[in-house]
Design brief:
Elements lengths: L4 E4 L2 E8 L17 H29 L2 H14 L2 H12 L4 H18 L3 H5 L1 H15 L14 E5 L4 H5 L6 E6 L7 H9 L3 E3 L4 H4 L5 E5 L4 E4 L3 H21 L16 E6 L4 H7 L4 E6 L1 H5 L7 H14 L5 E4 L34 H14 L5 E5 L5 H20 L9 E6 L2 H5 L1 H5 L4 E4 L1 H9 L17 H16 L3 E4 L10 H6 L4 E4 L4 H9 L11
Parallel strand pairs: 2-3, 3-4, 4-5, 8-9, 8-15, 9-10, 10-11, 11-12, 12-13, 13-14, 14-15
Antiparallel strand pairs: 1-5, 2-6, 6-7
The structure holds phosphoenolpyruvate and magnesium ion (MG).
Magnesium ion binds next to α18.
Length: 548
């Protein structure tokens, strides 16, 4: 029996799929003369395989999106079948480079050449060349380029680590749960597992060495127990626990559509945290009255370039419309930390969580925030949208963001494009600095939302994603609680409201405390909503709560 850090509760039984087997292993050393033929064969086979894969993608795109969009792939096929490209790569193989290194070198050369050309169309084709190069190399190395969303058998994922964007691609129907070697309680990977409601345990030392593909796994993230090929008795016992777990969940169903109101009549707004448009369905099903946090960065992470204003506008509008006149709080891009976006080419940092993250990148990459604010403002015309800014530490940052918002409004007005002129703005309180100056900050914005995940890591100096210090990561540490209390007080003093969208809002042990100090809105991982509603309905706001 093995254990780790529970990040999302549940029980899964199924076959293991080790996905670290598929990570690339590009060998740098040269090959011997004898191996040249074999490498050329590998390369040619990979070209054939790549062409077939793209033909399938083309067909699929044509059916799902339209013929015009599928034409891009015709171009990919032409590049793959270009004799000059193959000749160049084979030349390198003849110089005793492996097929993958030879491909990498030729693709790099091509890109360099294209960058020098002033033609905008050709410049845009660089992405295609990169994509093709990656595909050829993946096929040479036999890397499984199937996306996690495409896994079509029921499995339990076992891997060293999962990035937040990989996790967001998980198809719940087939991925029964996951176990990773790295990760902490509130890393974004863990948060996504919780919001999807799939069992997950992270920080399990050497799990990828202990498990073989297709081993039978029991992942019990209620009791923090992992079994590899267990005996019949354990399987029977765990199946029973699983059944009870679902029975208890079903009992909570009645709370889904009830109001979150305390025994002494204080109404509390219950929102949901979402990362993608598809998450709305689960949020509504669990009784969310609003979206308290939409992490827009997942829209950026799922692409190989920045989303355009139009692409963003379409998504934002759809989200607002799906929520049918209920409030939606959209947070501007919070990239950095454990959420990476390769194409932004952000520098590698020693301390990414203390570095170039969120609003800190806006001033150097001003078009990012300008485009996003335009898209959000345009979407604001279709419902109750509020804009929220992450990682604030000073008043100057708010002045800068307000100036940008004013500029975006002015431009849209000049272009006769409508938007909500009285759009409300809020900030995340997720740094001790913001909490300590919350009195001044609250005079500048309409609302606060407490990001307890970051607030905890920055207050306690404990990396939220590091399993080595996860035992020190305590969102209910008195220092964090004191800061939260202070923030609520400052906002109320200035006639504003405070919500909480960090994981603490989904933690049943914290609910009574949060009610007592006057939190106005809880934004929760959807599967936890019924349970938190139940606790609120059994708590007092003014009278002393029994357990508090
Ligand atoms: C937080 O820090 O608590 C928060 C909600 O933001 P994120 O988890 O996306 O950093
Ligand atoms: Mg945060």
């Amino acid at each position: 029996m093995i254990s780790g850090i529970i990040v999302s509760k549940g029980i899964a039984l199924g076959k293991a799929l080790l996905i670290n087997l598929y990570k690339k292993n590009i060998k740098k050393e040269k090959i011997s003369k004898k191996k040249i033929k074999l490498e050329i064969k590998k390369f040619l086979k990979s070209i054939k395989k790549s062409v077939n894969q793209i033909k399938k993608i083309k067909k699929y795109t044509e059916k799902k999106i339209g013929k015009d969009k599928s034409e891009i792939f015709e171009g990919h096929i032409m590049i793959l079948q270009d004799d000059e490209l193959s000749k160049d790569i084979i030349n390198y193989i003849n110089k005793k480079y492996t097929a993958e290194i030879s491909t990498k070198k030729v693709i790099k050369k091509q890109i360099k050449k294209m960058r020098k050309i002033k033609n905008k169309y050709l410049k845009n084709r660089i992405i295609d060349i990169k994509d093709i190069g990656k595909r050829i190399i993946d096929n040479i190395l036999n890397v499984n380029i199937k996306k996690l969303s495409k896994i079509d058998k029921k499995v339990i994922l076992i891997c060293k680590d999962l990035t937040p964007s990989e996790t967001s691609e998980i198809n719940k129907k087939n991925i029964l749960g996951f176990i990773t070697e790295l990760g902490g309680e509130t890393s974004h990977t863990s948060i996504i597992a919780k919001s999807l409601g799939i069992p997950a345990i992270v920080g399990v030392k050497n799990i990828t060495k202990q498990v073989k593909n297709k081993d039978f796994i029991i992942l019990d993230s209620i009791n923090n127990e992992i079994y590899i090929n267990p005996n019949k008795e354990i399987i029977t016992l765990k199946k029973k626990i699983k059944k009870n777990f679902f029975k208890n969940k079903q009992k909570l169903e009645i709370f889904k559509n009830l109001k979150a109101i305390t025994l002494d009549g204080k109404k509390i707004k219950i929102g949901a945290n979402i990362n993608k448009i598809d998450d709305i369905c689960l949020a509504k099903k669990n009784g969310a009255q609003s979206i308290g946090l939409y992490r827009t960065e997942f829209l950026y992470m799922g692409k190989n370039r920045l989303p355009t204003e139009e692409e963003q506008f379409i998504v934002y509008k759809k989200i607002i419309e799906k929520m049918k006149n209920k409030e939606v709080i959209m947070r501007t891009l919070d990239i950095g930390g454990d959420k990476s976006c390769k194409y932004l080419n952000l520098p590698k940092e020693e301390n990414p969580f203390l570095g170039y993250r969120a609003i800190r990148i806006y001033s150097k990459k001003i078009n990012i925030i300008r485009t996003q604010l335009r898209a959000m403002l345009r979407a604001s015309n279709f419902g109750k949208l509020k804009i929220m800014f992450p990682m604030i530490i000073s008043l100057e940052e708010i002045y800068f963001l307000k100036k940008e918002l004013k500029r975006a409004k002015k431009k849209l007005k000049e272009e006769n494009i409508s938007f909500n002129k009285n759009i409300k703005i809020g900030i995340m309180i997720e740094t001790p600095a913001a909490a300590l100056i919350s009195d001044s900050l609250s005079k500048e914005v309409d609302f606060f939302s407490i990001g307890s995940n970051d607030l905890t890591q920055y207050t306690l100096a404990v990396d939220r994603g590091n399993d080595l210090v996860s035992h020190l990561y305590d969102p209910m540490h008195p220092s964090v609680m004191k800061l939260i209390k202070m923030v609520v007080k400052s906002s109320h003093k200035n006639g504003k409201w405070t919500g909480i969208c960090g994981e603490l809002a989904s933690n049943p042990l914290a609910t009574k405390f949060l009610i007592k100090i006057g939190i106005d809105e809880f934004s929760i991982n959807s599967p936890e909503i019924p349970n938190i509603k139940k606790i609120i309905r059994k708590s007092y706001f003014k009278k002393k709560n029994k357990t508090f």
